[in-house]
């Protein structure tokens, strides 16, 4: 997988004589860890943050948009890089093997929930069709 921002990074280094590191941040999620690993393999400093650890405004309900979420993540990353304490909790990316184990547990949980839904639906249909004796 070729990363599209590498040529522009090289160009800026040649023009200015300075190396500008590329730093990314993302919220931990079900599918985010493979992206983190690919970025790190290509020399990008990547961070994964626990979404629950980022401070949110408690005054009223603000609209939740990607733009607001992105700005919040950038502010958290800048504060983390400055060394401010208790800004957010960074998450350690699991190995591919650990991620596979988690995936099996999650899939099992989903299948059990689906089974319960089907059984409940069958029981409710059964009660509606067969009159009580």
Describe it.
By secondary structure, the protein is mostly helical. It is built from 4 helices and 2 strands; from the N terminus they run H-E-H-E-H-H. The chain has helices at 6-16, 33-41, 66-82, 96-129, and strands at 23-27, 45-49. Helix 2 links the parallel strand 1 (23-27) and strand 2. The termini are far apart. 5% of the residues are buried.
Show the helix and strand layout.
Elements: H1 6-16, E1 23-27, H2 33-41, E2 45-49, H3 66-82, H4 96-129
Parallel strand pairs: 1-2
Amount of beta strand: 5-15%
How are the strands ordered across the major sheet? 1-2
Estimate the helix proportion, in percent: 40-55%
* Unreliable stretches covering 5 or more consecutive residues: none
**What class, by secondary structure content?**
mainly alpha
H/I helix tally:
4
Q: How many strand units?
A: 2
Q: Kindly, what is the distance between the CA atoms of the first and last residues, rounded to a whole number of angstroms?
A: 66 Å
Order of helices and strands: HEHEHH
> Biggest β-sheet: count, sense, barrel?
2 strands, parallel
Shape: elongated
Q: What's the Cα radius of gyration?
A: 23 Å
Mean pLDDT figure: 82
**Quaternary:** single chain
């Amino acid at each position: 997988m070729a990363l599209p921002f590498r040529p522009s990074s090289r160009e800026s280094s040649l023009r200015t004589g300075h190396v500008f590191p590329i730093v990314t941040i993302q919220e931990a999620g079900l599918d985010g860890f493979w992206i983190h690993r690919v970025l790190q393999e290509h020399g990008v400093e990547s961070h994964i943050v626990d979404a629950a650890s980022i401070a949110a405004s408690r005054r009223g309900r603000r609209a939740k948009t990607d733009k607001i979420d992105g700005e919040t993540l950038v502010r958290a990353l800048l504060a983390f890089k400055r060394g401010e304490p208790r800004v957010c909790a960074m998450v350690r990316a699991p190995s591919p093997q650990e991620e596979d184990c988690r995936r099996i547990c999650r899939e099992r949980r989903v299948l059990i929930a689906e089974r319960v839904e089907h059984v409940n639906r069958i029981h409710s249909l059964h009660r509606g069709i067969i009159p009580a004796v």
